[in-house]
Hints:
Blueprint: H1 3-31, H2 37-47, E1 52-53, E2 65-66, E3 70-79, E4 86-93, E5 107-115, E6 122-130, E7 140-145, H3 160-168, E8 174-181, E9 194-199, H4 203-214, E10 222-228, H5 237-246, E11 250-256, E12 271-272, H6 277-283, E13 290-295, H7 297-310, E14 317-321, E15 343-346, E16 351-354, H8 362-368, E17 386-391, E18 394-396, E19 408-410, E20 414-416, E21 420-422
Parallel strand pairs: 9-10, 9-13, 10-11, 11-12, 13-14, 15-21
Antiparallel strand pairs: 1-2, 3-4, 3-8, 4-7, 5-6, 5-8, 15-16, 17-19, 17-21, 18-20
Amino acid sequence: xxxxxxxxxxxxxxxxxxxxxxxxxxxxxxxxxxxxxxxxxxxxxxxxxxxxxxxxxxxxxxxxxxxxxxxxxxxxxxxxxxxxxxxxxxxxxxxxxxxxxxxxxxxxxxxxxxxxxxxxxxxxxxxxxxxxxxxxxxxxxxxxxxxxxxxxxxxxxxxxxxxxxxxxxxxxxxxxxxxxxxxxxxxxxxxxxxxxxxxxxxxxxxxxxxxxxxxxxxxxxxxxxxxxxxxxxxxxxxxxxxxxxxxxxxxxxxxxxxxxxxxxxxxxxxxxxxxxxxxxxxxxxxxxxxxxxxxxxxxxxxxxxxxxxxxxxxxxxxxxxxxxxxxxxxxxxxxxxxxxxxxxxxxxxxxxxxxxxxxxxxxxxxxxxxxxxxxxxxxxxxxxxxxxxxxxxxxxxxxxxxxxxxxxxxxxxxxxxxxxxxxx
Length: 424
């Protein structure tokens, strides 16, 4: 074989090898997701670090959520009501990363470092507050109402979490925050008219829903029934009035149960009295509508069953109540009323109490019997009520968003499956 022929063969083999490596590299990049949904998720996972978790999003290209706690800095603190009882906090991530989108109506969970009540030092406290702005901003916003002592129990202390925010948190402070969560959120597809019903600080998730509905090309008609005592308690009243002027499909109904002398019917408010079923029946057109409710126990205990008795389908009623034992639940399926109730033992409190299915959850059962349990979201999303289960088994009303540690359970969404012992 002549030298020229040998050189040609070697060059050819070399070209084949280079081409093979190139084809292999192209195949590998496609396999890892150079284009398509899987590739988008893989790149997001790398871009946001090993602690990031991929969560479903309604908007393509939105960054994922995060696991555990993430540090945020308070950019601004703004009072939102005339009586200064409601304050908004604008939060941006300390790491400078992008914010994941959330579903309108969801909340943030905070781990706060608050002063101890009965001795020096501080202790951690978990609290959840609704996001009060539409998704897609460059900062999260929560709007928090200072919670006073209950009117019928003035000896009790005021809200620790809300008081901590109002009295101690200022612009520039850092907060430890979990990713947006919660099962109360706006259904973002469909054309069914929407009715939002808010009592007091229950307006906060509705503001998020309204912002999302009105700031995009959504054709749904939307009504807001907002109940407070008087004009001093209205949160973001100027924004609500502006939305009503700018959007013909948005109908604002402000309901004052105890108007102040300076409050003018037809200008400052639209209805004298509380938000009740009679008002809804006299105001709303007779057609299918989706209802979203958030407010204090008396309003929720009245309106949720009232809407059902009016003929609204259960799947068209979504609600989030604040305060324990807000909605009376039916006896869970499979519970025999004639069977003696199982015994719930609280080992730390040295108490053993027969289970009452009407309590709905172990958290509400504990509270009703004077057993103090830390809690936050009351929806299985924050882990605030995580408690060691020393013996027995529990069942969850729905799969928890927060994964409890081995040997623990979330009291807010669980009920006992026979006798149990809790470390509480």
